[in-house]
Write a structure and sequence with these properties.
Pfam families: Glyoxalase. With about 150 residues, the protein is an alpha+beta fold. It has a single domain, classed as 2,3-Dihydroxybiphenyl 1,2-Dioxygenase, domain 1 (Roll). It contains two helices and ten strands, in the order βαββββββαβββ. The longest helix has 13 residues. The radius of gyration is 16 Å and the shape is globular.
């Protein structure tokens, strides 16, 4: 990657994903996660996920994925997306999910405890079966540490 200028700010990501029901997506992303809604049509809805653009597209036959890989003693869904939050924000979100009786694929926990890359993590499914991971590092220098 010759002559590529260094990134001075974190770019925002855009992710489109399938859902089986837009009302359920609005309830989960809009109400549960608190994501403001942007543009929409009868087939899709834009959400602001902590400054990133995610788009729920109505595609009932393409939802969910059963493939997993083992990571630190858990079966992690291969297809997933999520955010790296600040440590306190991660705990607040975990508390919000618990208060709402959200079902987790992987309960909030500390992964790689005492090792390089130690992180808080939790996995859950949205109403269409899309897997989401929310994680946090006490030290952001550990995000890409080996």
């Amino acid at each position: 990657m010759k002559d590529v200028p260094p990134v001075t700010v974190r770019p925002r990501f855009h992710l489109a994903f399938p859902v089986h029901d837009l009302a359920a997506a609005r309830a989960f992303y809009g109400e549960m996660l608190g994501c403001p809604e942007g543009r929409s049509s009868p087939e899709w809805v834009d959400f602001d996920l902590f400054g990133h653009q995610i788009v729920a597209h109505l595609a009932p036959g393409q939802c969910g994925d059963d493939d997993t890989n083992p990571v630190d003693g858990h079966d992690v869904p291969v297809r997933h997306f999520g955010l790296i939050l600040e440590w306190e924000a991660w705990h607040a979100l975990a508390d919000r999910f618990r208060a709402a009786d959200q079902r987790f694929i992987i309960e909030p926990c500390i992964r790689f405890q005492g090792q390089v890359g130690e992180q808080a993590t939790m996995f859950l499914l949205d109403p269409s079966g899309n897997a989401l991971e929310f994680k946090a590092f006490r030290d952001e220098a550990m995000i890409f540490a080996r």
